[in-house]
Each structure stands twice: as structure tokens, then as C-alpha cells.
Design goal:
262 residues; alpha+beta; 10 helices; 11% strand; globular
């Protein structure tokens, strides 16, 4: 006796490819436009697994990455699922991002650098962010509620999160020295949210012409720390250590006569 096939409304069969479409719908949860609600009801009546979950929610696999991939993948972005991404720069530094959308606007929340933030820890942080979203909140706004650190603390956190980017211990030591009291004593106790252009100039002007190469690196490193602070939600203003379109209009061109050692 021939097996009786379940009937699907002809309106919902635009092409012979429907069988593969139905198979895909049965294996994952997708958003159903209004025209397909009758198809959803048909899938429920025929026992299609996964079809009974709420419309409007895209279920995506989680925990797709392995520790080996996180350690070895090249430059670019690699998704772990659920909004968690690993971003790898050309220099090899690795950091975690949680990407999400609220009101049609895409946002990114920095979760910290690898390996100081492990894959397991990043997944926990991404899960916390998804919980905030599910309750109607904004993960980025929640992160900004975190206590704003001083420049010294922010520099320490930045160095920890980016330690894999340094070529060797000497290179890291150079960053620590230039961002420490040798050059940034004025900035150290200031909250990163309160640092302005005049604060950066107080650090740069004494060495700008005397040690031009060191001064250039110092400016770039301060800019990186304050950029890190903005990504963490601790700052919202323009980076006061930015060169192009900012400090280049204030400081004279550097003399290229002396080579610094930092």
C-alpha cells in the first residue's frame, strides 16, 4: 500500500526545491514571515522537530570554536556562535567581541583579549550579554556601569589583554616603561574618562623635540590605551592623543635628528 503523503498548500510550493527548503526548516529555527505561518502549522502537524519554537528567533549553534583554533587561526574574525567572535589582528593579537543588534543598529562589546580571557570565560561573558538582551537591556550600557579606572590601571589592563602582541619580554618592558611613571606620571592617577588634550600635551611636550622618536611612540601608546578605554565603555569623547586631525594641529612637526631607544 502506497504511503500517504502529507498535503502542503499549493500556495506554499513555489518550486520543486520545496523539499530541501522544508528539510532546512526542520533542522533549524528561522524567522517565518506572515505568508508562511500556515507552513509552520503544517510542519507542527507533521512532527517537524524545531518548528514549534517561537517565530522571530534565529537559533544558531553555539560553542563552534576549539582551543586549538583560537590559538592558531590567522587574521580576521571567527565566530563561536551566539554573537561571540574572536578578532585576530595582522600582528597576531587576539580579542573577544560580542556583536549584537538593538533597534536595527549593530553594536560591539569588547570582552577582553586572549589568552587572558580564555575561550570558556569569553563564552560565559557572551552568555551574560545574551541574558541582558533577553531582558530588554543593552549589554554595552551595562558594561559602562563598570567603575572607570585610572590611566595607570587601564594601561595595566591593556598590557595584560595584549601581551601576546609583544615580540618579546623586552618589547613589553618598553611599553610598560613608557606608559609608567617615567613619562606618564601626570596621567597615572587620572580617570580615563577625564583625560583631555591638555593632559596628553603635558606628557608629550617635554620630549616632543628632545626625543622625537620616543615621543612619537609614547603618543601612539597613550592613544592605544585611551582607545582601549573607549572600547570598554569608559570613555566617549574623541581620543585626545589622536594625531591626524587633532594633535597635528597643535604640536610642531617632529625633528628627525635623534633616535630614541624606547
Amino acid at each position: 500500500m502506497a504511503e500517504k503523503k502529507s498535503a502542503v498548500p499549493a500556495l506554499l510550493l513555489p518550486s520543486p526545491a520545496f523539499a530541501s527548503i522544508q528539510k532546512n526548516l526542520c533542522s533549524s529555527v528561522v524567522y517565518f514571515p506572515p505568508a508562511y505561518f500556515s507552513l509552520r502549522q503544517h510542519m507542527l502537524s507533521t512532527g517537524c522537530k524545531g518548528a514549534g519554537k517561537g517565530a522571530g528567533i534565529m537559533a544558531r549553534p553555539l560553542n563552534k570554536l576549539t582551543d586549538a583554533q583560537v590559538k592558531s587561526v590567522g587574521p580576521g574574525r571567527l565566530g563561536d556562535g551566539g554573537g561571540l567572535w574572536l578578532e585576530v589582528t595582522a600582528s597576531g593579537s587576539r580579542s573577544w567581541l560580542f556583536l549584537f543588534k538593538i533597534g536595527g543598529r549593530r553594536s560591539a562589546l569588547g570582552l577582553g583579549g586572549y589568552p587572558s580571557i580564555s575561550l570558556a570565560r569569553a563564552r560565559k561573558l557572551a552568555g551574560d550579554a545574551r541574558d541582558v538582551l533577553s531582558q530588554g537591556g543593552n549589554p554595552l550600557a551595562e558594561a559602562r556601569k563598570e567603575a572607570v579606572p585610572t590611566f595607570a590601571k587601564a594601561a595595566e589592563l591593556f598590557l595584560t589583554d595584549n601581551k601576546s602582541a609583544w615580540r618579546n619580554a623586552k618589547h613589553r618592558a618598553q611599553w610598560e616603561m613608557t606608559l609608567g611613571d617615567d613619562y606618564c606620571k601626570h596621567l597615572a592617577p587620572l580617570l580615563v574618562s577625564a583625560i583631555g588634550t591638555e593632559d596628553v600635551l603635558k606628557v608629550l611636550k617635554p620630549v616632543w623635540q628632545v626625543k622625537p622618536e620616543t615621543a612619537s611612540r609614547l603618543r601612539g601608546r597613550i592613544e592605544r590605551v585611551l582607545g582601549f578605554a573607549k572600547a570598554k565603555g569608559w570613555r566617549s569623547d574623541v581620543n585626545p592623543a589622536q594625531w591626524r586631525g587633532h594633535l597635528d594641529a597643535i604640536l610642531p612637526p617632529r625633528m628627525k635628528l635623534t633616535r630614541g631607544h624606547h
